[in-house]
Design a protein that fits this description.
- This protein is α/β, with parallel strands linked by helices.
- The chain folds into four domains: 197 residues, Rossmann fold; 196 residues, P-loop containing nucleotide triphosphate hydrolases (Rossmann fold, 3-Layer(aba) Sandwich); 104 residues, Arc Repressor Mutant, subunit A; 82 residues, Orthogonal Bundle (DNA polymerase, domain 1).
- Helices cover 42% and strands 11% of the residues.
- The chain contains 26 helices and 17 strands.
- The chain has a seven-stranded parallel beta sheet, with helices on one face. The protein has a six-stranded parallel beta sheet with strand order 8-13-12-9-11-10, sandwiched between helices.
- It starts with a helix and ends in a 50-residue tail after the last helix.
Length: 653
């Protein structure tokens, strides 16, 4: 039976957001929070998490307080809400004292629907919140509370105190990624063990997952961009800051609009590069994991990894930034032997006790298993999060099924070589051991007498690439271990089982290197395939108008209208405001603001150049102060990362 609250919620959904129905668990989650209850929400990126706290914040008395680690993105989130006619604001260190006072005054006067705060500044703002009417607390990116997770933020640990200080205010914690163990930890640390848990499907069917052996990673990346996603936005993740800089410079030299982003850049450069990525078309951002959380850009067509992620959770979170608009997108990873050696060494040499290192090793083992699987990657990815599925038909292992083969004998040859070197009290890395197996006559080989080993030249039936694949897969299966700074190969308990003939070694056959091969991807489209002819032309005219309009307002283009909404307008070709209002994603505020211009473009009576500069507001509301370079907590990666850690800056809010 529908209640008055249900009717109000549906009215807000249509009038403000321009939708006529909820997706998945959205309706149940919103009803739970609107009725004053707590909730823990696990929903994939692009699944509509924001509506789950935005609508209750509008419907319930008071202001919804959103706790988010994304200071540098708060202004973009606020601007997107303002486009919808929602009264939103943020408090952080990018504002002047006068701007902060204006926002505080609006909060205390009951003039805000939503207020964004960073978790480390909550204690500073607690006194202010005590004097305001709070509708709810939304804890975004709730996985940051998990101490053994991929993105731990220490300041999230204090958020369990929210219920103690404001016991009558409902709380909703949201995340796009969490295993069953992480879900339990989130609930315990935030005091939400009694709250209902809403778990949506983790599947992102529009994303094509591909993992390729690393042969010439830059050339492979260039083929991905130029042959599959030319002129489209993407993110390239690298492990170190130096790699980020070098990759951005190299892509720029190849004619790609690429920008770097990492915690070592000054705040102004980070803010400028992030703003360009969000507001311009076709920018490729090369970055460490310091970049990406909370990025709402819906038309990111690919996410590429040039280094092995540390965990499946991190990989899923990062690849989930592609294709938020539901259109075909690519998640591509180049992965090689050195990645395995490097990650193992980072865990061994890193900070933390034995328990933390065991947890990190388990995360890495799961990631390696995903890389080496011969079955559907999506099945294995979803199974990690506790979800069973059928083979997807849209990953590399489904589209080009790999062969498996019995690699026991080659494995025994390799292990025997390591044993013989050990008998001489010598240890070497993979390259030299492969040279021995391949029988390569080098000065170093002769100097050390390794050409006299009984295993010298017994592996000439396989090439260097195949042998490196064997080493990589044996490391992944823990049939080898990498020891010390230089990646010296050593034996494990599993190695001895193989040598004794007690264990079969099944391996994935290395694919042949094909010059210029672009992979198995379907070509991504800017607009849905059903838009052809006149519909496609109209869609492009609307995109041109949207870009010009966004530039005038200094907001990202997707804040004006998403690609999905533009495609729906192009397909419907509305003739009047009533028909335009029926298009999904066109709420009342956007109908009032843009309706006449859009209808003129649809009818062909107006160019798609956007409004003149005079259309810009003469003054901005207090809820959206002028942009200043942002120094934000989200720019600092988790402390476990030795390449990128910096202490968080001391901010006011």
């Amino acid at each position: 039976m529908a209640t008055a609250t249900d009717s109000r919620v549906l009215e807000v959904l249509g009038r403000v957001f321009g939708y006529d129905a909820f997706r998945g668990d959205q309706a149940d989650i919103i009803r739970q929070v609107c009725d004053g209850g707590d909730a823990l929400v696990l929903m994939p990126t692009g699944g509509g998490k924001s509506l789950c706290y935005q609508i209750p914040s509008i419907v319930r008395p008071g202001t919804g307080v959103v706790v988010s680690p994304l200071i540098a993105l708060m202004q973009d989130q606020v601007e997107a809400l303002e486009q919808l006619g929602v009264r939103a604001a943020f408090l952080n260190s990018t504002q002047s004292p006068d701007e902060r006072r204006a926002v505080e005054g609006a909060l205390l006067a009951g003039e805000l629907d939503l207020l964004y705060l960073a978790p480390e500044r909550l204690p500073v703002a607690a006194g202010l919140l005590d004097r305001a009417e709070i509708a709810l607390f939304a804890i975004d990116e709730a996985h940051c509370v998990a101490q053994w997770g991929h993105d731990f933020r220490p300041d999230y640990l204090q958020l369990g105190l929210l219920h103690e200080r404001w016991p009558d205010v409902p709380r909703i914690a949201l995340t796009a990624t969490a295993t069953s163990q992480t879900r339990v930890e989130i609930a315990e640390r935030l005091g939400l063990t009694e709250a209902p848990m809403f778990v949506s499907s983790f599947d992102r069917p529009n994303i094509q997952y591909r993992i390729a052996p690393k042969q010439d990673a830059k050339a492979q990346l260039l083929r991905l961009i130029t042959q599959e996603h030319p002129g489209e936005a993407g993110i390239v993740y690298c492990l170190s800051r130096n790699s980020v800089e070098r990759t951005a410079e190299w892509l720029t030299a190849q004619g790609i609009a690429a920008l770097p982003y990492h915690a070592g850049l000054d705040a102004a450069t980070r803010a400028t590069n992030q703003a360009r990525f969000l507001r311009e078309d076709g920018i490729v951002m090369t970055a460490t994991i310091a970049f990406g959380m909370g990025i709402d850009k819906p038309d990111v067509r690919f996410v590429a990894h040039l280094d092995l992620p540390k965990s499946i959770e991190g990989y899923y979170q990062e690849t989930g930034r592609a294709g938020r608009d539901g259109l075909p997108s690519t998640a591509w990873l180049a992965y090689g032997l050195q990645d395995v050696v490097q990650q193992r060494r980072m865990i061994e040499d890193g900070e933390g006790d034995a328990q933390r290192k065991r947890a990190q090793s388990m995360h890495l083992d799961a990631m390696l298993a995903l890389c080496e699987t011969i079955t559907c990657r999506r099945q294995q990815l979803l199974r990690y999060f506790g979800q069973e599925s059928e083979p997807c038909g849209n990953c590399d292992t489904c589209l080009e099924p790999p062969e498996s083969w019995d690699g026991t004998v080659p494995a025994q040859k390799l292990l025997s070589t390591i044993v013989r070197l050990g008998q001489r009290r010598q240890s070497f890395g993979a390259g030299h051991i492969i040279d021995i197996l391949r029988g390569k006559e080098t000065p170093r080989m002769q100097q050390r007498g390794h050409d006299e080993l009984s295993t010298f030249g017994i592996g000439t039936d396989l090439g260097d690439t195949e042998w490196r694949g064997i080493v990589r897969q044996m490391l992944a299966q823990r049939l080898l271990e990498s020891v010390g700074e230089y990646g010296v190969l050593g034996l494990t308990d599993g190695s001895r089982e193989v040598l004794r003939g007690e264990r079969t070694v099944l391996l994935r056959r290395e694919p042949e290197r094909r010059a210029g091969a672009a992979g198995v991807s379907r070509r991504a489209r800017t607009a849905p395939p059903e838009l052809a002819g006149d519909g496609q032309d109209l869609f492009e005219r609307l995109r041109t108008w949207r870009l010009a309009t966004a530039k005038v307002q200094e907001v990202p283009a997707y804040v004006v209208f998403s690609n999905a909404t533009l495609a729906a307008i192009a397909a419907a070709a509305p003739a009047d405001r009533s028909a335009l209002a029926d298009v999904s994603g066109v709420g009342q505020a956007k109908l009032d603001r843009y309706g006449d211009e859009v209808l003129a473009i649809v009818s062909g009576d107006a160019p798609a150049a956007g409004p003149p500069p005079s259309a810009r507001s003469a003054s901005r509301p207090v809820t959206a102060p002028a942009r200043e370079p942002a120094v934000s907590f989200e720019d600092v990666p988790p402390p476990a990362d030795p390449f990128d850690f910096e202490p968080p800056p001391d901010e006011g809010y």
